[in-house]
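2 proteins. here.
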Amino acid sequence: MTLYDFILQYFDQPNVGNTPENKGQCVGLVSVAMDALKIPHEWGNAKDLLANANTQYFEIILNSVSLIPSPGDILVYGSNYGGGDGHTALCVFASEMKLVRFEQNNPTGSNPILSTVAYDNNVNGLLGWLHPINGFSGSTTDPVILSQSDSFIAVCSELGTQATKDSAIAKLKE
């Protein structure tokens, strides 16, 4: 399965997860990605994924000014997210300026979405990422996803609303 196929399968699907505890949570989406990659689950809150990672399946990469995550890497954010539980997402694309993430429950309660944020290794609480040793196959990103994500974010910004489908539609209906 490619990362693109994974995104298409789970984009905007409600309550993605594989246990009653993680359905609809950010870790639920990441756990389903681990299932797709045939990797055993990493347990704990999002902020604990780096510490709990099995090095048989992941290369653990601590955030550094000189490093940029790769498509398919599991991003791990610290306790400044999620009421202290952290946050996690899949990297779709990263450069020195931009990070495109596939994430769930950000904002709280949201279905899996693509989000584009400014990327700076020194801000936003990014602790590091897990690089699956046997990651997604084939092409990991699709230029259409990246351009649509940027366009969607820009339109939502102009509308003055959150970059989620439901928020954008509600604003357009006003």
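next one coming up
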Amino acid sequence: MNPAATQPLALDVNALAQSKRLAKEDPRAALKGAAQQVEAVFLQMVLKAMRDASPKDGLFDSEQGHMYQSLLDQQLAQVLSARGSTGLAAMIEKQLSRGLVAEQNVPLSPAAAGERAGERENSVPAPARDFVNRLWSHAHEASQATGIPAHFMIAQAALETGWGRAELRFSDGTPTYNLFGIKAGRGWRGAVAEATTTEYLNGAAQKTVERFRAYSSYAEAFRDYASLLASNPRYAGVLNQQDPAGFARGLQQAGYATDPMYAEKLERIIGGQTLRAGLTG
């Protein structure tokens, strides 16, 4: 089949909507189309450079002629890209498809699970039930000390640990029971575990190695978390907070985390189906 006969027009106003729909229905096909578009843009730039270097006299040396010549070059670039003329689209598709395969077929690594818990919390209902059951009694005890609903704190622990799949551990694999990402400051006298984490400086993410508190049990972790909130004036607005948005935003405004999306992720988990499934399961 002649690619020129099946290739859409370069000025097709519905192309963007079609690409969005295809991305949802068939990500691989959408990736192939996006790679071809990148190659088409590159080819169009090459053609433009060639036109600019050519003599500018003759019948078509006018504004109208230049416009139609540009439209022709856009369409020609589309056709050449569809034929794989340079191989650029194939290379782009191959490189990006690795990430697509990992996203669709490979379970999240512990580090990625922790960072993306707020974005993909609806994908782990079964582990959520185990997570909630394991922590509920400790969260209930901390709730009595802080006035914060137990499920709010479990949601925060889920965000920090990817529903338990990315709990902080010592280098030998033993657990630290640190559910809330609490760092070991100068006043901490207990055990310490070092780990690489993502911090945001002026909105930009960067990897750093930090020292975190380590506990002997989840119960101790919840007690220390409750003590931190109760003893630090910064968190006065968080204590006894019954509103999910107020709790999440209060933590972020108090400087609990540097992630600019922390409150939004936490609020989404609190109101999400995964936590509800865990609470009712």
